[in-house]
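We treat protein structure as text, and this decision shapes the records that our systems exchange. The tokens are whole numbers drawn from a learned vocabulary of local backbone shapes. One such record is reproduced below, unchanged from the form in which we store it:
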Amino acid sequence: MSDQYTNPAEEQTSILPEYTEDPEVKKKINNARNWLYVVAIIQTLIGFYELFTTEDETMKWLAFGIDAGLGVIFAGLALYTHKKPFIALVAALVIYSCVVVLLAITDPMTLVKGAIMKAFFFVAMIKGIKTAKEAEALQKLRN
């Protein structure tokens, strides 16, 4: 009886759906995921910078909380790309876009600051979203 038992965890080699076996799909989604990790790290570092450089006690903790919170959100979305890459990447793009717009409203110069990194992030997310959507469509055709 024990030789008939199979552990479901052993059968599953990846938590990613089958369509991600395509190396090009994996590469594009991994690239987008890596950008999410980069943004998560940068947001968290900005939070620590504001914590140690802002003089107003309330403001520094508020700024740290917002930035570190965004860092956690982006890290969580990066992890979620393993399960649902399309949803995670769309959510990340929407959140990042909202942050960019809100910062631009308060200080228009933020659009210029880090423009190259913002452009790379947007391109990576859009490519990742497109790839994830195509991969999901292929998966539906296979099923």
